[in-house]
Structure prediction request, 55 residues.
Amino acid sequence: MEVLRKKLNLRIDDIEENQNLNDKLKIYYKLLEDYMDKLGQSAVLHVKGRYIPIF
Prediction:
C-alpha cells in the first residue's frame, strides 16, 4: 500500500483503521462469496443496483 501511495501518488484508505467499516466489508464479502459459489461464478462486478457475472 505504501508503494502505491508513494510511487503512484494514489490516495488509499486503509480499511483496517476503521473497525466498523472493516467488519461490514468482511460480512459483505462472505455473503457475496457464498452467493457466487451457489451460482457457480468465479468473478463478478457488483455496483449499486447491478450484479454482473464476469466468468
